[in-house]
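Forgive a beginner's question, but would it be possible to get a protein, spelled out as residues, together with the matching structure tokens, please?
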Amino acid sequence: MIGAGQLARMTHQAAIALGQSLRVLAAGTGEPAAQVCADVRAGAADDLAAVRAFATGCAAVTFDHEQVPQDVLRALVADGVTVHPGPDALLFAQDKLVMRRRLSELGAAVPPFATVGSPADVEAFGAEHGWPVVLKAVRGGYDGRGVWMLDAADPALVEELLAAGTPLMVEQAVPLRRELAALVARSPYGQAAAWPVVETVQEAGQCVQVLAPAPGLDEEVAAGAQRLALRLADALGVTGLLAVELFERTDGILLVNELAMRPHNSGHWTIEGARTSQFEQHLRAVLDYPLGATTPTAPAVVMANVLGADGPVAMSVDERVHHLFARFPDVKVHLYAKAERPARKVGHVTVLGDDMAAVRARAALAAHWLSTAEWADGWSIHGAEAEKETTNA
């Protein structure tokens, strides 16, 4: 796996159960997967010599991020290396403009868009489609980065970005009800599987919760989203996972927002919440094993990201975990061994149950506690112990 972040770390955990050994290409020894994998090679994803040496002897090469240059990928393929997903498919997850154009050709609904070569292009698009508009970096943006919401033309910003060599596109701001995601997997010879469509809850452009299945989503609409994701995986030639991020407009229409061809934040809930996790399924697909069942293990599953706090937290991470388990022994915790800094994803929690509202509340409390060492509802473990002692007396 090229990349050694938390996605590679969790893929490594799945590989162990399958009797596989995951080699990771790491930019540094402190990266999450590099701390736990036995086979770590140092190197950058854009260093062809390092990637070639890394790939030697591997049954297959895959990714925990899309930022691998096309010339590197194509060189590996020319060398006879099995690369999943291949460069032709991965391009649609690397380049938003190429993706938008191809999806339009395939008849998938996307927001109106246009390429940007000058500030005048943004102004003309806004005049035609209305303001606000969304300015996007064509490559490299994630978690709200590389995205600018413009209420009016901003020539200075556009000129600055273009001068810095940032390729840009502009699209219509969608009247948004919520964001959804359809996650599927596809093997090299076309076997495919889909998990339930989920709702991804966003704050400041970053996913904070995933609700599985998406509450209140019409069954036919959900099935249509799954069929769309499966059709796109086939049409684009994806091997491995494909996450299709969707906008649900206020009128109920679904539009495709982004594509990812790797394990995805919207699928972390599957570790405990589905018969086969996204990480195991990605390995099954890449290695051409028959795919696993995607049946949920509970009626309601919520994943909440643990984000770095805005300021220093006095209590150690270990203490926070201790107190969380004392209150919520059923909450599953996944920590990525990443240094804490504001808004950085340093872990996630997963809660399962029968009632979505109750499960979501517990997940939110748990994630906030692990981030800040503060119970958002004012609960205190010391107060609970004192009350228990009083009752016993």
